[in-house]
Amino acid sequence: MRSLLVLALLAGLRPAWGAALPADDKVFQAMRAELDRTMRRLRMDDLPGPYFASYAVRGGTQAFISASFGALSSSQERPFLELRADLRVGDYSFDDNNFIPAGLPYGASPGQASASFEDDYDNLRHALWAASDEAYKSALESLAKKNAFKKKHMIAESNDDFSRETSTQSFAQASWTPIDRALWETRMKDLSSVFREFSDIQESRVELDYVSGTRRFLNSEGTAARGSDTRITIDLGVNTQAVDGLRVGDSLTLHFPGWKDVPGQEALKAEARRLAQGIVDVVHGSTVEAYVGPVLFEAEAAAEFFDVLLVDNISNPRGSWAEDENNHIYDAPPFVSRLGMRVAVPFLDIVDDPALERYDGVPLFGHYTIDDEGVPAQRVELVRKGKLVDLYMSRAPIRERRHSNGHGRAAFFGEPSGRMGNLVVTPEKSVPLAELKDRLRAMCRELELDYGILVRKMDGLSPVVAYKVFADGRPDEAVRGVELTGAGFRPLRDIVAASREMFVFNFNHGSNGRSTVPASIVAPAILVQEMELKKADRKPEKLPYLRHPYFEGKSRP
Amino acid sequence: MHFPGDSMNRRLFVLALVFGLELRALPARPEGTDAVLGAMSAELARSWMRLTHAEATPLYYLGYEATDISESWISASLGALENDAQDSARCLDVDVRVGSPRLDNTHEFKGRDSWMDNGQRPRARLVLEDDTAALRAGLWQQTDAAYKAALERYTKVETNRAVTAAEEDSSPDFSEAAVPENSYAAAAPPRLDRELWRAKVKKYSAYFKGRPFIYESGAGLEVERVERRMVSSEGTRIRTGNVYLRLSFRIASRTPDGMDVYRFKSYDGDRFADLPSDAVVFKDMDRAIAELQALRAAPLVEPFAGPVILNNKAAAVFFHEIFGHRVEGQRQKHESEGQTFTKKLGQPVVSNFISVYDDPTLARFRGTFLRGAYKYDDEGVKSRRVTLVRDGILRGFLMDRMPIAGFPRSNGHGRREPGHAVVARMGNTIVEASRSVPYAELRRLLLAELARQKKPFGLVFDDISGGFTLTGRESVQAFKVQPLLVYKVYADGRPDEAVRGVDIVGTPIAGFMKILAAGDDPEIFNGSCGAESGMVPVSAVAPSLLISEMEVEKVAKAQAKPPVLPPPFGDKD
């Protein structure tokens, strides 16, 4: 009787997912046809069908070219199409999500597949059907376990699991930009030959990653989106050992939205040389046993500073229940409870604006218009005069924020959560960079320190490229094997000055076990009142028995 | 034995390798101008000169193997292309031995530390191009890392030996150097007509469209060329190669009670002329479809012990898994091994009309391509035919350069996938019967055996896939092969009936002694075999075999349910 009623109700409704889609788009036609069948008919035995479904399909061409020491290591190119089906059972207030079953530390990830790159209607529908079936069964299983978890722990109240958002439609042209492989093979080889100039470097690599194509998104609430993009990543890496045998290395990752944005070959080679020289400085640099005093963060290091101390603490605000109580991967981040409180010095304003395509002419990797849940990207004011005013929100609500702010992001096969796009840090007052360095020296003299620390590059809170800046104005000296300790959240409030110059840092942002998303941080160099450094725990290793064959018999350049 | 169809994962299927082989000497490049061999020799000479006595523990062997793998693959499902790609890689294995041939860094860890002995090394790459500076840079770096790792492991070996009991087999760790091999031949890559094969693969895959009981399907072509270059401190200098082509298709379904069933078929070769015509492929597809339908409808097997026939291909897989792995040399020596056959030399292990040998020098068997052929193994030893069983009596083992009691030398079976340490492996394993009967007669013999044992039915295994053979002491000494297609043959003359969910149980040695008769129908199984040294291409050849007793039970049932909705194509919505 009940099922008859449900059928009657359904029959009277024109499905919302019947929203107008671009004509002659075969991929959308297949997505809609299968989404329609899924929502109307996918129902196992007497269990409920999905209350929500979305499909994402991404297709295009990808290529990878790598070179080492002047020769090609790999070159491949292939067309691809992949898809993801997200099905939810239960209802908006309580569904199978925000829960991690035991044995799956990062949660289940069903509903993923690849299919024909020929935009073939039957092939794609078949793949969507199989992915939906898998996602549906997995969702049912999760919901059952989550219900049991709720009962076991006597949880009476909880936040909704999924926010209701206005549906939107946006359709950009389906397009892609080809790669000139022969040209880029030559350029990568040539770029990698730069490292033949550095006898102190043991190992080097140069890689080009390219992906270009179209993404389509469709959900059962009527949201539909189509967008195309090209992402070009050039990655350079060097590894070697310092004179005492400590392993040191550095990498540089450059991101471009189109071929025209890639600098000329000589400019790229200059970047490669800068990378190499930085690590050569470190090889011959000195160590620091311990240091307490002012630290100047510049360029990438400033971006990393804000990433570690701010971004990670306001991302993925919705924690997940974990069946395994030792699993804290998706616990809510600490700043959720600090909304409205001061987290940084009062002269800082921080926003995230995914709509920005460029900053000062430099393309921003974190740019997007629709997030991975189909919600339009929004500019979010995060910190106003040092006070935390907002968080990165996806459609997973929390008590303090009931709606998405267009930051539900993930890698294609990842689970969307509240993530960054383009973070822009604006100081209310600033000084030229050179002055900031003078200020560091002055602080050292005041504190009777021989030198202060300048960090140019960090990996988390481990400085990769750092220098001693001497109080008496002697030339800077590279340091190696140090790490920042006991930072806590304090350094954001201990910033004493910022530079007028702004640095753009494009990167793939990873966060607490979540998939990586393209992101940008635009920030000034900053001077922090006091931080602690100590010698890293890493042990040195024996130097190579033989000299690099290319440099053997050659004097140092 | 594993083969791509084992996995119903789409992506895995696509990555699976293709096979075939025939060496054709390239008229091209004289050896002296081979830049890769040149760089390998130069860096080897430099390292050898300077590292042999760099530390108190001497370096006594250094070998390089560079493996170039070029692959192309095209695959399609339901008439549309899912993959169309090619890739090349040059892998490097550095084999370093410090200490002495009696005891070196490769020595087995015993006792508590034995788990550390997995032989897996990070897969190192060299540049693809013949650029001496870049090649030597990579060789230098990998040599340094491998040398340091060898010294470190040697120290651990010494400690491990000091704290554990003496070994039963005290043979050295490395056999004496033979006369070094010098050979130069390259594998000629067959020209792939991509347009033609895209169309063919699409056409094949479209054949499964509109059959709602097929939940997953596809067809694919893979073309692989493998070029290996080896140099060693003993003077080895080799270039050798193989070409493997594979055309395959697969179809899968699930029974209402949640059991995955599938059919897979592959055609192997080293030239396109080896691959079948469309007519043959479509005929095989019809058969596979009928078999899949039969499997879906088939009842679950009930526990059974009685006579069975292993059809030729199934018998080949059975011998490879159950017999072949147990005659690999290292399994007679390692203390962690079950050593089933170690003490059986000169004794009967198989019925007395059966002989088994492994012969990697055979490129073809009765005109058909063999995947397990190679000219030199991965230690630079020339491959050769090895008699394993003659007239039922165990006569030998598969040997790499690790000696075992009574077998001081390699017989050219040291193999690996790049990134692994070499161990003794099979190549072309061939089972022969000194007396055989036509297949129809074999069936009559089965019926006679049924009558003798008073059994209402027997089983015919038509298709078996290999699982991992557990030969260690820690595990039960049983074998795992997974029967894919099994028929019940009734004593009273009723038609044969497919059954599913068949799992073979029991002890392995027993089965070999119970072979009553063999068919005159030897058939080839071409596949890839996975073991400690990775995946290597292999072949197994056997006739159909009648075995007086085999025990089977029902496979543990899968939990997955069949799809809730029918596949979309043709669904009357």
Walk me through the structure:
The complex is a heterodimer of chains A (557) and B (573). By secondary structure, chain A is α+β, with helices and mostly antiparallel strands. Chain A has 7 helices and 25 strands. In chain A, the strands form 5 sheets. In chain A, strands 9, 10, 12, 15, 16, 19, 20, 21, 22, 23, 24 and 25 form a 12-stranded mixed sheet that branches. In chain A, strands 1, 2, 4, 5, 6, 7 and 8 form a 7-stranded mixed sheet that branches. The N terminus of chain A is likely disordered. Chain B is an alpha+beta fold. Chain B has 2 domains: 294 residues, PmbA/TldD superfamily (PmbA/TldD fold); 251 residues, no CATH class. In chain B, strands 1, 2, 3, 4, 5, 6, 7 and 8 form an 8-stranded mixed sheet that branches. In chain B, strands 9, 18, 19, 20, 21, 22 and 25 form a 7-stranded mixed sheet that branches. Chain B has a 6-stranded mixed sheet with strand order 14-13-10-17-24-23. In chain B, strand 7 and strand 8 form a beta hairpin. The interface between A and B is large, with 49 and 54 residues.
